[in-house]
Specification:
The chain is α/β, with parallel strands linked by helices. It has 17 helices and 23 strands. Strands 16, 17, 18, 19, 20, 21, 22 and 23 form an 8-stranded antiparallel beta sheet that branches. Helix 8 crosses helix 9. Its cofactor is Mg(2+).
């Protein structure tokens, strides 16, 4: 059926009167929006859903949330027969998140499943912690992370506190697709809901401090922090206070939770504009370090003082380099490294993490983009190798495994410890970063994201990836391409010898090209946003601190040449 024909099926039962009225209005007044809302089913992907709120099969609403939850409930009954099934649910500050969370709880309880539901918005990492702490069979968080205000989402976690991966992801998707809207059980049983509040917050805060505290001493660090109107405001101020940090300044204009995110174009700490107010406030307070978290508090932006005393934003690779090196130093100093430990990374993250792992005598394991794959590495190695920490370039870090997702709360504690230790030594974290480059090599990365929205945008992104596969580059900015990895075909091709080897990582629509001089170019459509992303990475050596500015300049010039090459 075409979009109009599908829309007309929403003009009768089981759809409620308000839904029918909204659909009829689209039919009569907005054919383009009607097509966008009904041209396909909103995909329940391998981690859940993310999309625009509104009526339609390609929108998030009572029925698409209900369908996803009914399919999940059916699968949980298949997996956990004969036992009391429990699911934890959290939600962020977005419009309708609280209402949708209760709707999801109702569908689960209507299916005989017991629910732990947070009374108010909470950070995503706290949901992961809660699943593990309360020994739940699954978890759900309603969030669209850093997407614009019109978006919402639905992420599913398994009983280890990590987002779902094979075989559960595809099996749940199969069950969701089976569900007819008329089959959704909406009439919940409130007696099966337990509401969560301060008690689990305190346990989460205690665990964060326990798993990240290495340093003892004076806490004179001056910290500026913004929640970007999001969920971390519920947890982080108390966490920092309990950890002993007394000079914490919260950006007042962004302290109030607000699903409109009124002071930013995008509530994404990856975007420099999002932290502009925090940087201004930090200069007024003469702060040592600045933090910004995204609305569901899994991503983290960090700004520190450079060698000239100016506040500069770190990219995700730089921030994770500092945090990883700090944690590895402490593990080594405490005699906890014996060759049976590993750090986690992803295929589009900086190769500096291989160098760091080699320097400290641990392994570096990589997975696809997304923290569920780092959590999957932990699951597979349990009982064999101990996970230390892990990160990816998109401003996510996990400093321990008590939470099995990226976690800005505990990551901020590690950053504060590292900054405090540097300050005690009369240094800045920026100088520590340069020390790391001297130790293991200089690496520099940039990211370009091209936004292509809607039905036409998805088609354009698909064609761009098809063009790369049909006509892969033989050289990049004057450097010979010597290897290409296609994660969709699972083939790694050595362009020098022609040898093909299998990539032992789940399939994904990602291409990576490597040159003879260590340059790396990765291309992938985003799994959560209407974007195609290009990751640029160059490397060289750094023998003295005096070379740092020159190396940065050389790297930026080289990446600019690559951008021009790609047009």
């Amino acid at each position: 059926m075409n979009s109009l024909e599908i829309a007309k099926t929403w003009l009768k039962s089981p759809f409620d009167e308000n839904t029918q009225k909204e659909v009829q209005k689209l039919i009569e007044t907005n054919p383009k929006e009607l097509d966008e809302a009904f041209y396909k089913n909103l995909e329940f992907g391998t981690g859940g859903m993310r999309g625009i709120m509104g009526v339609g099969t390609n929108r998030l609403n009572k029925y698409t949330y209900g369908q996803a939850t009914q399919g999940l409930a059916n699968y949980l009954h298949q997996q956990f027969t004969g036992k009391k099934i429990t699911v934890a649910i959290a939600f962020d500050v977005r419009h309708n998140s609280d209402t949708f969370a209760k709707l999801v709880a109702n569908v689960l309880t209507a299916n005989g499943i017991y629910v732990y539901l947070f009374k108010e918005f909470r950070p995503t990492p706290e949901l992961s912690f809660t699943v593990r702490k309360l020994k739940c069979d699954a978890g759900i968080v309603l969030t669209a992370s850093h997407n614009p205000p019109e978006y919402n989402g639905y992420k599913v976690y398994w009983n280890d506190g990590a987002q779902i991966v094979p075989p559960h992801d595809s099996a749940i998707i199969k069950e969701v697709r089976k569900v007819d809207f008329a089959e959704i059980k909406f009439d919940g049983d409130d007696s099966k809901i337990t509401y969560l509040d301060q008690e689990i917050d305190n346990q989460f805060i205690d665990a964060a401090i326990e798993n990240t505290m290495f340093l003892k001493g004076k806490k004179d660090l001056k910290i500026v922090y913004t929640s970007l109107h999001g969920t971390s405001i519920k947890i982080l101020p108390q966490t920092l206070q309990n950890a002993g940090y007394e000079n914490v300044f919260i950006v007042p204009e962004q302290e109030i939770p607000d699903g409109n995110f009124p002071t930013v174009k995008s509530p994404n700490p990856e975007e420099p504009e999002a932290l502009s107010l925090a940087l201004k406030y930090a200069e007024e307070q003469n702060a040592d370090i600045v933090f910004g978290t995204d609305p569901d508090a899994d991503r983290l932006g960090i700004a520190i003082r450079d060698i000239n005393g100016k506040l500069v934003l770190l990219n995700g690779n730089q921030a994770n380099t500092i945090l990883t090196d700090y944690i590895l130093q402490k593990w080594k100093k405490n005699g906890k490294i014996d060759g049976k430990q590993f750090i986690g990374s992803t295929i589009v993250t900086s190769d500096i993490f291989f160098a760091l792992a080699n320097h400290y005598g641990v392994d570096c394991k990589v997975g696809l983009t997304g923290f569920k794959w780092i959590a999957d590495l932990i699951r597979k190695e349990e009982g064999k190798e101990k996970f230390i920490c892990g990160g990816e370039e998109s401003f996510g870090f996990m400093p321990s495994d008590y939470v099995r997702d990226k976690d800005s709360i505990s990551s901020i504690l590690v950053a504060c410890e590292a900054a405090q230790e540097a300050k005690n030594e009369g240094k800045t974290l920026f100088e520590k970063l340069i020390d790391i480059y001297e130790k293991v090599g200089f690496y520099y990365e940039e990211l370009v994201s091209i936004v292509k929205t809607g039905k036409d945008g998805a088609s354009q992104i698909s064609k761009m990836m098809e063009e790369f596969r049909a006509h892969p580059p033989k050289e990049i900015a004057g450097e010979n391409v010597i290897k290409s990895d296609d994660y969709q075909s699972s083939i790694s091709l050595n362009l020098t010898t022609g040898e093909k080897t299998n990539i032992d990582i789940p399939k994904s629509n990602v291409l990576i090209f490597y040159t003879n001089k260590g340059t790396k170019l990765a291309c992938r459509p985003s799994g959560t946003e209407p974007k195609i992303k290009f990751y640029f990475s160059v490397q060289s050596t750094l023998t003295t601190k005096d070379e740092f500015a020159e190396k940065i300049s050389e790297a930026q010039i080289k990446i600019q040449k690559i951008k021009e090459f790609l047009k």
